């Protein structure tokens, strides 16, 4: 399962219909400041070198001041939990959105 598939599947369990691609997901809901993210918000990332186009998405699972944890699906490790403070994700972060 890819990252957007994980998001679409998770939200469909709550009867929330979302578009299937990460690019389309990145325009849904309301933009929010990363300092204001809550559980269930979406985080978007640009993980390709020399390209800031959004190509990865995760769902916030835990948030408190200065700390954000999210679940996402990776091609190499499957579905995992990561922290936004990890250097890779911190540098790749583009935006957060609230769809519910």
Biggest sheet strand order reads 1-6-2-3-4-5
CATH superfamily membership: endopeptidase domain like (from Nostoc punctiforme)
Oligomer: single chain
Mean of pLDDT = 96
Write the layout of secondary structure elements.
Elements (H helix, E strand, L loop, with lengths): L2 H10 L9 H4 L4 E3 L9 E4 L10 E9 L2 E8 L3 E6 L3 H6 E6 L2
Antiparallel strand pairs: 1-6, 2-3, 2-6, 3-4, 4-5
Written account of the structure:
The protein has helices spanning 3-12, 22-25, 87-92, and strands spanning 30-32, 42-45, 56-64, 67-74, 78-83, 93-98. By secondary structure, the chain is α+β, with helices and mostly antiparallel strands. It has a single domain (3-98), classed as endopeptidase fold (from Nostoc punctiforme) (Alpha-Beta Complex), CATH 3.90.1720. The longest helix has 10 residues, at 3-12.
What structural keywords apply?
endopeptidase fold (from Nostoc punctiforme), 3 helices, globular
Short description:
The protein has 3 helices and 6 strands. It is of the alpha+beta class and 100 residues long.
